Amino acid sequence: MKAAFYTLGCKVNQSESEYMAELLSKAGFEVVSPNEEADYYIVNSCTVTATADQKTRQNIRKFKRRHPDSVVILTGCMPQAFPQAAAELEQADIVFGNKNDGDILDLINKYNLEHSRIVNIEQHETGDEFRQCSITKFNERVRAFVKIEDGCDRFCSYCIIPKSRGRVRSKKPEQLKEDIKVLAENGIKEIVLVGINLSAYGKGEDFNIVDAVKICAETEGILRVRLGSLEPDHITDEIITELAQIEKFCPQFHISLQSGCDKTLKDMNRHYTAAEYCDLCNKLRNAFDDTSITTDVMVGFNEESDKDFNESLNFVKKIRFEKVHVFPYSERTGTAASHKGDSVSKQEKERRASVMAEAAEKIRDEYFNSLIGKTVSVLFENETAPETFRGYTKNYIPVEIKCGKNIKGLEVNCTIESVDTANDICIANLNS
Q1: Which terminus of the chain has a lower count of CB atoms within 10 Å, N or C?
Q2: Where are the alpha helices (DSSP H) in 235-382?
């Protein structure tokens, strides 16, 4: 039997897809690309935006249309947040939420016995414990996304995630230690710790995100430790100081901004000001060498005026992020912001997104060009073409190199010789 996964959304979803894939592999399934013929097509959905929901529906219908005799499965955040809409998507033979990803094999077996459509969506509840989702490898890479936290308690006015993910809960350090040891033994060199609200790892417990980083860094075979997306108001001076003392820690911080306008931040129910965010960026750049700061920026939030947008745009230019993910506001039913309506037109959102993205890309291009002639340490992850290898610096700059020997999984020093801005990558030569 063959199973194919199509994953939408964040690194947490990618980690959960790997977990489900391993469950099926252990049961004798062959996991193949979604472009190949398969008996089961699993769509692991995202629901952050209406566009994400649309992609989910499109792919469910596409797989059923192209493979009418195959079983199409819908899971992830979309059915969790909008169970009725998911249940009505009749092209999905099996529907379950992210709370039940560990039940995928049982649900498949039940479907094969009963030959009847299954909709099994269990809602998150206060007091839920962290569900184990240990993995032993990661999609044939040397870098693994390891989920250590789930849920969010912040309730930003635009965000559906608390509904789709429940409250904050964390993987126990002893379980994390065991998981990382197994990954290292199986050839993983870099750990990326991920969570829905990663900064909240250990909330209500006697451990925190620094403890998780230390566990990974102290594991034999692990060369690097990286963090996923963080909330700015959770990064304390103490955390910065402790992380700066961990040699294997990668100084690349993805810190969610959403807006550089204080009025918009307040409307979004974000818990910081633009000035506080700027102060944090300065602290990080002072504490670490070659710090890279990336972010997410939303445009066209309800009641965002031209003045508000320009304030946010100027803030992004001021901080000079190494990379910015720009996206237009998408109203999510059931959120606080949805009760106000959506006052910015689709055309204006698209215009603002284009202006913001152009400014961010210009800064990134300037940053890449400033790296020419610089020696960097790169962990190479894969061979993209014969004798062509691609990897990342510690601050997450993509680098490509021509090399006659296999350097996959090796961390080596290179000198950046040029920049391919069209493909968003630096071209380097191996140091002799």
Answers
A1: C
A2: 237-244, 262-267, 274-287, 306-319, 346-370
Q: Which of 212, 210, 113, 150 is nearest to 19 (CA)?
A: 150
CA distance 78 to 184: 33
pLDDT tens for each residue of 254-305: 999 999 999 999 999 999 999 999 999 999 999 999 999 999 999 999 999 9
d(CA 245, CA 190): 18
Are 324 and 386 contained in the same domain?
A: no
Per-residue pLDDT tens digits for 135-187: 999 987 899 999 999 999 999 999 999 999 999 999 999 999 999 999 999 99
Q: Are residues 366 and 298 in the same domain?
A: yes
Q: Please state whether beta strands 375-385 and 323-328 pair in parallel, antiparallel, or not at all (unpaired).
A: unpaired
- DSSP assignment letter at 232: G
Crossing angle of helices 104-114 and 11-26, rounded to 10°: 60
Specify the 3-state DSSP secondary structure of 419: strand
Whether 296 and 401 have beta carbons less than 8 Å apart is answered as no
Domain CATH for 388: 2.40.50
Domain that holds residue 328: 256-370
Encoded tokens for 392? 């990342």
Q: Please say which residue of 250, 270, 289 terminates a domain.
A: 250
Global confidence as pTM? 0.95
The pair of structure tokens assigned to 329 is: 């506001």
